[in-house]
Amino acid sequence: MGIGKSKTDPCHLSVPWGKSQSVDTSQSHQTSDSKQSEDISLHGDAVCSSTAEMPAGEQEGVEESPEEDTEEEVFLKFVILHAEEDTAEALRVQSLLENDFGIKPGIIFAEMPCGRQHLQNLDDAVNGSAWTILLLTENFLRDTWCKFQFYSSLMNSVNRQHKYNSVIPMRPLNKPLPRERTPFALRTINALEEESRGFPTQVERIFQESVYRIQQAIWKETRNTVQRQSVA
Fold first, then answer.
1. Where are the beta strands (DSSP E) in the chain?
2. Taking the complete model, does pTM exceed 0.70, yes or no?
3. DSSP E strands: which ranges in 104-180?
4. Which domains does the chain have, with CATH numbers?
């Protein structure tokens, strides 16, 4: 909350002050107390009037200050799409990529804001990150929502040039989805194999900082364009 909003409004104080001064059991003081009450009330009205007559810019500067703790949106390195039952495994993979390989920041889909539609969260997750990791486990194909997620992600990577090769299927150590049961659309993409000896090399080859910077610049420009259009 801004500093201006935390100050007590003098307009609200004029009324109770006037009432408290007008209450007296002595008949001889009623006239003087009433006059004093009126003076205080008028003084309060004058403060309110002077505030109201201030230019709009100055009023905003006094009453409304930007919140200091407002955080700027961050373009993520990756988002992990996973089955609901695989939240713990998704968190483990997130920690692996961030702490062991320095690929940060990242997020798993279960950490997306609550109270919003799943489609909105999916759009924000895919377009607000450089890479979309599909956690291919045995639970993944049992979840209809997961199927929708990977089809939508693939279509997004095809329709947007800067998103080409941004969808990364990954078979984790725990309960990986067998290759023969993997949907054909995903079999055409080289998947990250955590149990493979070449896993570190795969990670280094895929998550390149230069690719991230390009996508980040496009993301910022898109956001700025949308903000300018909304203002206009």
1. 76-81, 106-108, 129-135, 167-171, 192-193
2. no
3. 106-108, 129-135, 167-171
4. 76-230 (3.40.50.10140)
